[in-house]
Amino acid sequence: MCSFDPEGVRLHFDDLVVVCLCAEWCGTCREYRGEFERLADRFPGVRFLWWDIEENAEGLGDLEIGNFPTILVRRREWVLFFGVMPPQVGHLRRLIEIFLEQTIEQSRNYALSSPERSAWQTDPYLAGLGHDKENQENLSK
Length: 141
What we know:
Helix content is 35%, strand content 21%. The chain has 141 residues and is an alpha+beta fold. The protein has one domain (16-138): 3-Layer(aba) Sandwich (Glutaredoxin). Strands 4-3-1-2-5 form a five-stranded mixed β-sheet. Mean pLDDT is 84; it is low at 1-13.
């Protein structure tokens, strides 16, 4: 079910990308991973990536991950969501459904619609998440 392409996956900028930032030592993360993988199966047009923050700490730069699971959702170059999410996959499923209903223009407008989301767009470390092929495990088929 879970595969990793060592050459990485080139993302098309139209793709919706969901990155889960977790740690192997975290019991909640280990339990959540199976649900996250099943969610990836449910949304074949969405790129799902698993990022172990302990193994790939250098790729996070100055980002503070305070709790798990921390989720990043991006569309094209726009970060639509970044934060801790309850470890019930239904919350993430609904968020993905909402973002998939948006047009590209609506996603752009949403990404710029608050000071917090606007700040995400200029954060160089958030910009790299979901694009760095070496530091994440691709769970999409």
